[in-house]
Amino acid sequence: MSLTTNNIGFIGAGNMATALISGLIESGYDNKKIYSSSPEEDHLKRLSDNFSINVSNMNKEIFKSASTVVFAVKPNVINEVIKENSDLILELKPLIISIVAGFQILEMEKRIGSRHKIIRAMPNTPASIRMGVTALTSNNLIGTEDKEKAETIFGSVGTTCWLNEESFDLFTSLISSGPAYIFYLVEALTKAAENLKLKESLTKKLIVEMIKGSATLAGVSEDSPSILRKKVTSPGGVTERALEVLKEKKVKEHLVEAIFEGASRSKSLGKK
User: Fold this and answer.
1) By the 8 A CB rule, do 73 and 81 touch?
2) What local confidence, expressed as pLDDT, does residue 271 receive?
3) Is residue 3 a part of any domain in this protein?
């Protein structure tokens, strides 16, 4: 579906808002129909210089200008944003799309009312290179056209999927936070590679290419990750011994526990 008849506004001008704006424009969306607000003048200047979109340091201008408004702010400021603009939200009734971590639709409805169209989205940082994964959910006022709007916005930066909202906290910890776990793994592998005495840039390239190749193989292979792992693991070999250490340290169990703890934190954020 084309969004050319709709103005899209972003409350916030941080990394994720920038990624979405970039993705929309690269997909052919009219930059003159995109708006963004932020108290950070340097963020607004960057967006204006790079994308020639409409910018303002007043959130109210976004609600006055856009029929679709994306809340792209931190959880600790969302209540203030809603409170300051509640009159305009009630009057203009824009489609609200929230990417605020942990902030449930019910909590949004408590603040702006249950008669507003609300979509909740949770993207991850590879959206900045248009390889993101975004989960979407909504209240019962959302129709097919509204869903297509959300899919167009977030589909411009990667893959989208619709989930029941009760799955969102786990999705947030598993997929949205997932890149951090991969980066943490890269840090550990880089530490292990110090004795290779290679240039840091080459070490990083080798490790990243290994991860990229492994991920691609897992994506295209009909074998499960378990089977693929076993194909690399020769009895009595190097890989087997390294995996034995990981099993002895219960790395898999600790990782699963960490993801569940992250999901709990996500749930608690929406209650503050």
Assistant:
1) yes
2) 64
3) no
Cα-based angle 68, 72, 75 (whole degrees, multiple of 5)? 130
Token pair for residue 57? 């340091």
Question: Does 193 map to a domain?
Answer: yes
- List, in order, residues 6 or more apart from 13 with CB less than 8 Å away: 36, 37, 38, 40, 43, 44, 46, 47, 55, 72
- The pTM for the full model equals 0.88
List the alpha helices (DSSP H) in the chain: 15-26, 41-51, 59-65, 78-92, 105-112, 144-155, 168-171, 178-192, 200-220, 225-232, 238-248, 251-269
Per-residue pLDDT tens digits for 81-126: 999 999 999 999 999 999 998 789 999 999 998 889 999 999 999 9
Range of the domain at 229: 176-269
Q: What is the pLDDT of residue 270?
A: 62
Domain count, the chain: 2
Question: In whole angstroms, what is the distance from residue 219 CA to residue 213 CA?
Answer: 10
